[in-house]
Amino acid sequence: MSANEPLDGLWYLAALSAEVKPGAMLRRILFGDPIVLGRTKASVVFALRDVCPHRAAPLSAGRLCEIAGETAVECPYHAWAFRASDGKCAAVPALHSEEARDPSTISTKRFALHEANGLIWIHHGDGAPETAPPDIGLSEGFRPKSATIVDAAGPFDEAVIGLVDPAHTPTVHKQWWWREGAARRDKVKSYEPTPLGFKMLAHRPSTNTRIYKFIGGAPTTEIEFRLPALRLEHIRNDRRRILGLTAMTPAEPQMTRIAHVIFWDFAVLDLIRPVAQSMADDFLAQDGAILSLQNENLKRGEHRPLYFGEADEPAKWYLRLKRAWQERRESGFKNPLAPASLRWRT
Ligand code: FES
Ligand SMILES: [Fe+2]
Fold this sequence. Notes:
The chain has helices at residues 156-164, 169-172, 211-215, 267-271, 273-298, 313-326, 328-331; strands spanning 10-16, 25-30, 33-39, 45-49, 63-67, 70-74, 81-83, 89-91, 110-111, 113-116, 119-124, 146-153, 186-194, 197-203, 220-226, 230-236, 241-250, 255-264, 340-345. The chain is α+β, with helices and mostly antiparallel strands. The strands form four sheets. The chain has an eight-stranded antiparallel beta sheet, with helices on one face. It has a four-stranded antiparallel beta sheet with strand order 2-3-4-9, with no helix packed on it. A four-stranded antiparallel beta sheet has the order 5-6-7-8, with no helix packed on it. It is globular, with a radius of gyration of 22 Å. Fe (ii) ion (FE2) is lined by residues 162, 168, 172-173, 287.
């Protein structure tokens, strides 16, 4: 497995529920592979490899149909139809009446999906999922209030490291509403391992970050990272909560799809929803831009990264977690991290 090969046996964000309409299909390149995401009229989502086994036409350019009461995808070229539920071929219209051939011996790969809270997760790997789909800790009623998606050029690991790296925030994310101009201070944070990653324990957000003042009521923040590439920032006060979710999915080779989705149940935030959306857009565009700049060099040759100081520890943790996951077949997955406290200046 090469260094930037996406980890298998895990779940990645495939799409927002709102992107996949009932009775419609969407073509998306994930893990370098064409995939058709669709939704039946009964609102069940499905994902199949978007390559017809006959002569490689994209199934997503065809149409949804019903065969024996089941939804199938009909190829646009010769109308072979593949069942949404398992990817098996259910019809080859050109077979003549005496050709005793069984189309169901042909199939296109079907991917396991999980839909919850307005998000569609896809399992990457062959065989049955090894892990449960991500539980983001929200009750069923929470739906995305803002969503930003950026396709950024660059190696997947660099993108993920940007997600856990605390030291880039004051340089890359220079918004007036964030902390522009505030002096740097030492910051200490406590971390604990979690089943698939680590979390920065709940703490009062830094007083030099203006946005938190808006929320009121002594909020706390807890930031969690989970393999393969999921960051969850939970902000809570005594009654209400906000979840900022960032998920990265390998798309075309050397392209990463970065999604940032915000959930909240603060009615007051509904009033500034467009503002929240544009803040999130700015944030993500900044992360995407620095990744693309790095990529201008990385794509031209090997670079051996340096990890220097405690602020670079989370990057090393990610790489250790990843290695432990890749080696799980020998001895099962054991999180190699221990509780720690990190100090850096920000
Ligand atoms: S290419 Fe799909 S049916 Fe022929
Ligand atoms: Fe960032």
